[in-house]
Model the fold of this input.
Amino acid sequence: MQLPRMSTLVATYQQVQSRIHRACEQTGRPRSEVKLLAVSKTKPATMVKEIYDQGQRSFGENYLQDALDKIEALTELTDIEWHFIGPIQSNKTRPIAENFQWVETLEREKIAQRLNEQRPAELPPLNVLIQVNISGEAQKSGLKSEEVADFADLIATLPNLTLRGLMCIPEATEDEQKLAQQFDNMHKLLQSLQNKHPQCDTLSMGMSADLELAVKHHTTQVRIGTDIFGARA
Ligand SMILES: *Cc1c(COP(=O)(O)O)cnc(C)c1O
Done:
């Protein structure tokens, strides 16, 4: 019997799904606890549509114009969920507030205020995550752990934003113990945040190279680009 031909993209997408399934099984977590964010930055709308047709709904974008072109091209897919995961310039907040369902890289009060003001009244509140510089590297975006609580309290006063949790990009290292420590510190930080902000249910961490480790260390959302869509130019 001849098997139906499967595209490379569908095959790599299904491999990533299997890795998440297996990682959940091995750590005794229900698969439903770990969401997959497909990071489609720099990749065309046709590729987004192809894995949308496989059931994928959440997509991550870093570059505003690139993202807006795709959002425009795919407006008929009304249940698609766009996450902004790049650095945010203050003169670019309006299109983000108008076109995305999530912002995962919030770290400045001014940006939070602007997103709150510019979120259209007819849309539900924008879901936001606070980006944490969990490795403490000097060049890296994100708040220090000890700054998170106050920033969370500020976000809680903004009616058009809903704080959903925390996001990090850990150190680029092969040292698994170091990574595991940073993931665990994020988990503790989320737990302490939940005392005052119980709606915080999201820990966004884990990328192509460290998906399994992140699942083991309590991630609720992995952000996968390369292993689904291939290397970026
Ligand atoms: C590009 C990017 C990813 C995806 O990384 P891959 O290594 O391609 O899986 C995840 N998170 C953020 C914030 C990114 O910018």
In short: The mean pLDDT is 96. Residues 39, 41, 62, 85, 169, 207-208, 223-227 surround pyridoxal-5'-phosphate (CB under 6 Å). The chain has one domain: 8-229. The first strand starts at residue 35 and ends at 39.
